[in-house]
Write a structure and sequence with these properties.
Strand 1, helix 1 and strand 2 form a beta-alpha-beta unit. With 242 residues, the protein is of the alpha/beta class. The protein is globular, with a radius of gyration of 17 Å. It has 9 helices and 7 strands. Helix 3 packs parallel to helix 4 and helix 4 packs parallel to helix 6. The structure holds NADP nicotinamide-adenine-dinucleotide phosphate. NADP nicotinamide-adenine-dinucleotide phosphate (NAP) binds next to helix 1, strand 2, helix 4 and helix 7. The site of NADP nicotinamide-adenine-dinucleotide phosphate has 31 residues, from helix 1, strand 2, helix 4 and helix 7.
C-alpha cells in the first residue's frame, strides 16, 4: 500500500462518486485530504473522516485562486492535485444548446486549466508535484450524445500532455486516467436499457467502482510512478484496447 503521510492531497468534486472514493482512499493511506464541491456536501460525514472541504466552482478562476491561496497559507504546500470534478449534459448534436456545450467545457476543461495553473505554481517552487486528471473513455473513443463531454475529455488528454512537457523538468508528473463505466450518481441517470448495452460491451462483464479508479490515482500520485508523465491510463474493464 502506498504511504501518503506528510502529503497534502487536493481533490476537486470530492463530495460524492469517484472523487469521494479517491478522498477516502488517500485518507486511509495517511494523507491530509481536502475535497472541493460546487453545491452541497455531507459535512458531518467528511468531518468524521477528518477530510476538509471547500465550496468552490472549478470553472471560476477567481474562486479557484482564492481557495488555493487559502490552502497554501494554512498548509504551506499541495503535493497532489486530482482534477476529478466533472459534469454531463448529454444530447444529440442537432439538439444541443450552446449553454449545455459551454457548461460542460467550462467545468470539465477550463476547470482543469484553472486548478492546474493555480496549484502547479507552488509545486514548481517546491520542485515536487503530482497531478492526476480524470478524463473518460468518451474522450478517447467518442460517444454519441456526448459531443460536449467527449470534446472536454479529449481536451483534458491534450492538456495533460502539454502541461506534462512544460513541467517535467520541475519534477512535476501530470497524468490522466480514463475510466469506463463507473457506478455513481452520474451514471445512475442512464436508463436500464442503456446500462445493459454498456455492460454487454465490457469484456470484464462488470461496471467499475470508485475504488477501481482510486487505486490507479494513488499509483500515479506515488513515487512508484515517478518516471511516468503525460500518459492516459484507461481503466474500463477492457472496452478500449489499442
Ligand atoms: P458525480 O457523482 O456526478 O460527482 C461529480 C462531482 O463533481 C461532485 O462532487 C460535484 O459537486 C463536483 N462538481 C461538479 N461540477 C463542479 C464544479 N463546477 N466545481 C466543482 N465541483 C464540481 O460524478 P462521478 O461519476 O463521480 O465522476 C467524477 C469524474 O469522473 C468526472 O470528471 C467524470 O467525468 C469522470 N468519469 C466518470 C465516469 C462514470 O462512469 N461515473 C466515467 C468516466 C469518467 P456537487 O456534489 O457539489 O455537485
Amino acid at each position: 500500500m502506498h504511504d501518503f503521510k506528510e502529503k497534502l492531497v487536493l481533490i476537486t468534486g470530492g463530495s460524492r462518486g469517484i472523487g469521494k472514493a479517491i478522498a477516502e482512499s488517500f485518507a486511509e493511506s495517511g494523507a491530509t485530504v481536502i475535497v472541493t464541491y460546487k453545491n452541497a456536501i455531507d459535512e458531518e460525514y467528511f468531518n468524521s473522516k477528518n477530510i476538509k472541504h471547500y465550496k468552490c466552482d472549478v470553472a471560476d478562476e477567481k474562486s479557484v485562486q482564492e481557495m488555493v491561496d487559502a490552502i497554501v497559507k494554512e498548509h504551506t504546500k499541495i503535493d497532489v492535485l486530482v482534477n476529478n470534478a466533472g459534469i454531463t449534459k448529454d444530447g444529440l448534436l442537432m439538439r444541443m444548446s450552446v449553454e449545455d456545450w459551454e457548461a460542460v467545457i467550462d467545468t470539465n476543461l477550463k476547470g482543469v486549466f484553472n486548478m492546474t495553473k493555480a496549484v502547479t505554481r507552488g509545486m514548481m517552487s517546491k520542485r515536487y508535484g503530482k497531478v492526476v486528471n480524470i478524463t473518460s473513455i468518451s474522450g478517447v473513443m467518442g460517444n454519441p450524445g456526448q459531443t460536449n463531454y467527449s470534446a472536454s475529455k479529449a481536451g483534458v488528454i491534450g492538456f495533460t500532455k502539454a502541461a506534462a512537457r512544460e513541467l517535467a523538468a520541475r519534477n512535476i508528473n501530470i497524468n490522466a486516467i480514463a475510466p469506463g463505466f463507473i457506478e455513481t450518481e452520474m451514471t445512475d441517470k442512464l436508463t436500464d436499457e442503456v446500462k445493459q448495452s454498456y455492460l454487454n460491451s465490457i469484456p470484464m462483464k462488470r461496471f467499475g467502482s470508485g475504488s477501481d479508479i482510486a487505486n490507479v490515482v494513488k499509483f500515479l500520485a506515488s513515487d512508484d510512478a515517478g518516471y511516468i508523465t503525460g500518459q492516459t491510463i484507461i481503466a474500463d474493464g477492457g472496452i478500449v484496447m489499442s
